[in-house]
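Box 3.1 A note on notation
Throughout this textbook, protein chains are presented in two layers. The first layer is the amino acid sequence; the second is a token string describing backbone geometry. Keep the layers aligned when reading.
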Amino acid sequence: MRNRKKSATVALETLGCKLNQAESESLARKFAEAGYRLVHPSDGADIYILNTCTVTHIGDRKSRHLLRLARRINPKALVIATGCYAERAPEELARVEAVDMVLGNEEKAHLLQVLGCKGMASPASALGPSPVLRTRSVVKIQNGCNQFCSYCIVPMVRGQERSLPAGEVVDEVKARVGMGYREVVLTGTQIGAYRPSLELLVQRILAETDVVRLRLSSLQPQELTPELIALWADERLCPHLHLPLQSGSDPVLRRMRRRYSLADYERAVAMVREAIPDIALTTDIMVGFPGETDQESEESYHFCQGMGFANIHVFPYSERPGTLAAEMPGKVGERVKKERSERMLELAREAALRFREQFLGRTMTVLWEKEAQQGVWVGLTDNHIRVFAQSSEPLRNRLVEAKLVGWHSLFDLWADLVN
């Protein structure tokens, strides 16, 4: 381990899910409050922290690349790997020549204390904190998963399901609102497994906080009860749901050990669309799962084609050590996986365009995030359409109505501000 001088700057980089984003956001606030100055990874920070993902081998590879890149940018930096890859294979990450320290998911929240105990870093107090005003904040409500889908490493790196106390979550949302955030996203490994009840938690947040927009992250179709869906009568709940499908073939879903059938999925989608106008439904699709035949691949394609998704995240099956699927016969070749991915990605592009087209000519409220270029601002509608507009006045963190009048780029719309 290298000897370290006192450090003033910290860079955090995050791969993977919104839960990782929430934990990185929390960690960044702790460092800022302790007097560290937060900087971009390209600035060559004194301490570089990578919150890794290990859902696929691509995530592992990207993690190693970013850690080595951080070392090249600042050879004297303290380079720390944390997150799910660090939890799954700490010895493997420790062998990466760029890495000084590897911390699992449970240690992540206590990183400041770990550094202090080792006498490895302390802030330059004269610099003070450097919080960055953002429009959206991600709040963790739950961690862990008990489902053990046959392909998924997450239960092994996140542990069993556990929920944060509702009062603690409500207080956290109040704190984010007090910091100026206009939108809060509730996230976790499996937020539908929140106990005692996700429905009751959302009710409390809506009743007890002044949050302007509340967005839920990924849910399973079997978790969408009529009582939960009824909460969208409150317009502060964003009409956007991510419902992972994984496959549009029932035999593949059974081999994946998913807890729903295609009929269950269709019923959930119909119920949601009937109750929530303009809702954007996004999903995940895996191609090339072990044993996936040409016929099953076609079934998956045509099912997705008929669902009218606002976006589809397509990814090839990635073998994860220790999972049931890793031992399954009928591995699909890389060439076939690539062909199926490309075809499904083209469908994803078509679906995204069709969804956005129906809102051309509509006036919608946009939460403006930042100035993309001089005089041009970018933001999101409540149903997650990215919008650009011209304004000589600053729009950051403001909710302003805009008429969607045309295309800005492949998936983004151009708008004229109203009033």
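The two ends are 59 Å apart (CA to CA). Residues 334-357 form the longest helix (24 residues).
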